[in-house]
Amino acid sequence: MPSPRTPTVAVVGLGYIGLPTAAVLASVGVQVTGVDVKQSTVDAVNAGELPFVEPDLGTVLAGAVSQGTLTASLDVPHADTYIVAVPTPFKEGKVPDLSYIEEATRSIAAKLTGGELVILESTSPPGATEFVAQTVMETRPDLTLEPDLPNTVYFAHCPERVLPGRIMIELRTNDRIIGSVNGDAGERARDLYQLFCEGEMLLTDARTAEMAKLTENAFRDVNIAFANELSLIADRVGVDVWELIELSNHHPRVNILQPGPGVGGHCIAVDPWFIVSSAPEESRMIRSAREINDEKPEYVLNQVVPRAQRFKQPRIAVLGLAFKPDIDDLRESPAMHIADELARRLPEGEIMAVEPHIDELPSSLTAHGNVVLTEFEAAMSAADLVLLLVDHTIFKNADPSALTSAQIFDTRGAWRSI
Predict the structure, then answer these.
(1) What Enzyme Commission number(s) does the record list for this chain (predicted)?
(2) Residues 221, 170: contact at Cβ < 8 Å?
């Protein structure tokens, strides 16, 4: 008997989710084409090089490219399965922006012949996967959603549920939620993910799968908002919030998260708004949590700027720009917002940005003219004020008393002993 044909997969979008997914599929023998709109990303992947920082991804990527199971292209090929992993930001008014999904869908539609599976991995508002299916049907009226016909195209939603910095581990170990739109799309998606994922496959409908991912991140956002609001209350009544949380968490049924300068990233800072936009009258707590976390950077600025203004030309060491520790991801980062506002509000000062995971500052910061990417120890020794925004390991392991005599604003509780 002839051996079964190697399945082909096209992953559209080679960002923080798409590229690891493409690499791990290719590592188990699937023939994968990664598609991206950036020539620099395509070139990097084809050279077996990482376009961003993610532990363990580089080894898997290089291996897949060298074995010939992973290539990258600007053009969408024909494939058995398409995985859409493009951004889903929001527009003005916190309304979901599905333009990237629509563009990817239309590029896929032109390649379909019938029998393919289209999986939306991008975190999306309820109904987005149905929108993908409808867009294909409108673009290609020769195709159908009716199952078991030669010209049927199948659609599913399988949201990513991984943590930056642990993506390569969690892609293989986390349970997967798979939502089906038509026919046996869910079972088809399950069979694909089981090639590399050891977690449980949880099948449901597409809308429930979409809401499940949003619910997970909204739950975390609400809990972080509680911690952030508690930090404001503790400041007002003169209590150390870090000690307060530590003591409270000794209760067996209490697990308060840690406060910070806000919430960032492409998930928690964005996804709850998708729920709010879908059910604005019912999402009162979720909206309030999002507003509390969105307002925290301004609270930090109000603590730092007046003190900086006491100096004629203040030098501020801003420690961390990423949205979480030990990665280079700046998306929706409250630290980025705070650094940007410090530069704008203190034009006579120097903002020494310390971010060990990037080689150059984004243009939004360099445009101010008073923001300089600076080494950690150099910034600490030169600073009038030190603002710890991200608890990167290099910062947590340092002894600040040996590096600076400046006033320190620790928004992460990493240096509580000072």
Answers:
(1) 1.1.1.22
(2) no
Q: What is the sign of the dihedral through the CA atoms of 169, 170, 176 and 182?
A: negative
Whole-number Å distance between alpha carbons of 62 and 293: 39
- Summarised one tens digit per residue, pLDDT across range 198-256 is 999 999 999 999 999 999 999 999 999 999 999 999 999 999 999 999 999 999 999 99
In CATH, 8-199 is 3.30.43.10: no
Angle between helices 271-278 and 206-237 (to 10 degrees): 110
Strand partners, 386: 317, 408
- The pLDDT assigned to 418 comes to 39
pTM assigned to the model: 0.88
What are the residue numbers of the active site? 213, 267
Q: How far apart are CA 227 and CA 256, in angstroms?
A: 7
**Collapsed DSSP state (helix, strand, coil) of residue 253:** coil
Q: pLDDT for 106-138, tens place per residue?
A: 999 999 999 999 999 999 999 999 999 999 999
* Average model confidence (pLDDT) across the chain: 95
pLDDT band at 4 (very low <50, low <70, confident <90, very high): low
Instruction: Give start and end residues of each alpha helix (H) in 140-240.
Output: 167-173, 185-193, 206-237
Look up residue 278 and give its DSSP letter: H
Question: How would you classify residue 156: left for phi > 0, otherwise alpha for psi between -120 and 50, otherwise beta?
Answer: beta
H/E element holding 40? Answer: helix 39-46
Q: How far apart, in whole angstroms, are the C-alpha atoms of residue 330 and residue 164?
A: 12
Q: 155 falls in which pLDDT band (50, 70, 90)? A: very high
- In the chain, where the domains are located: 8-199, 217-410
Give which of 134, 215, 213 is closest to 181, Cα–Cα: 134
Tell me, which fold does domain 217-410 have in CATH?
Answer: Rossmann fold (3.40.50)
Q: Hey, which residues does 91 pair with through a beta bridge?
A: 95
Total length of the chain: 418
DSSP labels for 117-151? EEEE-S---TTHHHHHHHHHHHH-TT-B-STTSTT
Cα angle, residue 411 at apex, residues 410 and 414 outer, rounded to 5°: 60
- The whole-angstrom separation of Cα 201 and Cα 189 is 10
**Helix, strand or coil, per DSSP, at residue 78:** coil
What band does 3 get if pLDDT is binned at 50, 70 and 90? very low
Q: How far is CA 116 from CA 29, 50, 152, 187, in A?
A: 19, 29, 8, 13
